[in-house]
Amino acid sequence: MFGERKINEKHREQYRRLGYWNDQTLLDCWEETVEKFPQREYVVDDRGFRYTYKQMDEAAARVAAFLAETGVRPRDTVSYQLPIWSEFAMLTIACFKVGAVAHPIAMSYEEKELVRSMNVTESRVYFGTTFFYKTDYEKRILSVRNQIPTLKEIVLLDYTRAREHDLPVLGEILKNYEPLKKEECAHALTGEDVAVILCTSGTTGGTKGVMLSHDNVRYSEDTFNRELKLTEEDIMFMPAPLHHATGFHHAVIATMLRGAKMVLQQKYRCREAIDLMNQEKCTYSMGATPFIYDILRELDTNGGALPHLKFYLCGGAPVPGYMVQRAWKFGILLCEVYGSTESVPHVFVRPEEALALNGTTSGRAMAGVEVKVVDDEGNEVPRGTPGEELSRGPNVFLGYLKAREITDGVLDDEGWFHSGDLCVMDEDDNIHIIGRKKDMIVRGGENLNSNEINDMLEGCPGLGDHTIIGMPDDRLGERICAFVVPLPGNEKLCLEDVIAYLKGKKVPKRFWPERLELIDRIPHTGSGKVKKYLLQEELKKRGL
Fold first, then answer.
1. Would you state the pLDDT for residue 152?
2. Strands (E), 456-514
3. 284-288, strands of its sheet edge to edge
4. Radius of gyration of the chain (CA)
5. CB 129, CB 83: distance < 8 Å
């Protein structure tokens, strides 16, 4: 299934020669840390669950024994759809133990997305909660079970509601299975094997499975840890979903490579997050801009402090200088990071440079990663000239699963990943992101395809020509704005009408427009493309 991996042979040899890539898997890394720090805490969550490295190792080994008995073999795929719970880490480590490819799924995925992603990955086992935050996940997965031919077993986590069907639950597995012995674990894999498939959206529509090897993930997080000077004494607070590259790489993996600890909050609530960070003495955190925006506002408005928090790594939207200064009032160094699922945050502001740079840049590349800025013909542009950001390095993904044509469109034969993001590079190799070539809206750190959302509006009563753009927002980075030409007689069309239509089509809420702007004509180029920059200017004229 993973034969379509795209690796430049010259750079493969170079990465191995330099020691960036080797035969070490994430299982090997895990076992080294458990042996070194068995009694150190690995994960704590706000449900009261706490695991040392040794305790987590035993629990994951019991799940691994179940997977092996179920017939999961090395390079098979295991899917799991969980909130920000400590069990997410448990299932990830269990996958590594049997050599399975981890396939974490967003909690927002509904029936069609579940079927598509699990069929593309040929998933063997699904783990999911029975119920969470108004959603019946047990009912959802059972409604599509027959549409996923490779799926052999469904396992439920019944902490929030008792199961309603005769399916195995994780608690029974942890109670009844003996841990898989170390010598029975999958030590035959190499660093070049696929470790995880993370799902992402793109301009081509729908979700894509991003293949990342053990080498990709290990190199990225080892280097990140080293350049941030993190040690086993550090404690991370992770408010972002763990299926996202931010949560998976920088919480689940980065901490275990150091023997550090991660602290999880299942549903983000600002004041409770502050209290939890203080209770656990968290030393750093990472997430989308809205998290730190809310924290700073809460501290300003209602008082308090975060005396242990040294820095916050902020991604998903540019970080303005005024936020850097607001954070520093509380002793927090606010550092912008930049990257994507395909090339996990590979550019970042080092904490010691945060105040001097003061929100003017996304930072510079980490060691071993190359970044260049090119024009539309692929030629490098002079410093200070806008162009597309390209990155190449041992962290860059292996391609999209079963989508070679789409892979070839963004990952060239020389190993450069074409981000589609426009930036300017200065004389010190810092880049400043100024926009996107892709029609993406980054809302609260989540990438949403504006073309896909626009297609969902088709057929809405009263709508003539229409398009979707990102509307700037201080908190979320961007919100979804629909520009619409109303049909005659529908001049009073409102946002509620559009939402009612989308609700009737069962379109997930995260794709609903948050603002509707009526316009006489959508501006198009001669080839029919929407001139979205003119609509951005129109928003400014309207005071938005």
1. 97
2. 463-473, 477-486
3. 50-52, 41-45, 261-264, 235-238, 284-288, 311-315, 333-338, 347-348, 364-365
4. 23
5. yes
Nearest alpha carbon to residue 157 among 302, 47, 14 = 47
Q: Which residue is listed with tokens 């606010």?
A: 334
The rounded distance, in Å, linking the Cα atoms of 366 and 348 is 7
Q: Are strands 235-238 and 207-213 parallel, antiparallel or unpaired?
A: unpaired
The most distant pair of C-alpha atoms in the chain lies apart, rounded to whole Å, by 73
CA dist list (Å): 472 to 218, 314, 329: 35, 17, 25
For residue 442, the tally of other CB atoms under 10 A from its CB is 18
How far apart CA 18 and CA 204 sit, in angstroms, is 35
Give the mean pLDDT of 244-257. Answer: 96
Q: How far apart are CA 305 and CA 496, in angstroms?
A: 40
Domains and CATH numbers, the chain: 52-189 (3.40.50.980), 442-541 (3.30.300.30)
- Distance in angstroms (rounded) separating the CA atoms of residues 495 and 191: 50
Q: Which two tokens stand for residue 51?
A: 């695991």
Torsion 410-412-288-357 (CA) sign: negative
Q: Provide the strand spans (E) within 110-152.
A: 123-129, 131-132, 135-136
| Residue 329 burial (C-beta neighbours within 10 Å; 0-12, 13-18, 19+) | exposed
pLDDT at 325 over 70: yes
Q: Helix, strand, coil: what percent of the chain each, to 5? A: 35, 25, 40
Give 511-542 pLDDT, tens digit per residue.
999 999 999 999 875 545 678 878 988 998 98
Count of beta carbons in the 10 Å neighbourhood of residue 409: 15
Determine which helix (DSSP H) or strand (DSSP E) holds 497, and give its type and residue range: helix 495-504
3-state secondary structure labels for all residues of 53-72 = HHHHHHHHHHHHHHHHHHCC
Instruction: Using pLDDT thresholds of 50, 70 and 90, give the confidence band for residue 438.
Output: low
Q: Please, are residues 266 and 47 in contact by the beta-carbon 8 Å criterion?
A: yes
Task: Indicate if the pLDDT at residue 247 is higher than 70.
Answer: yes
**Local structure of 39: helix, strand or coil:** coil
CA 262 from chain center: how many Å?
Answer: 17
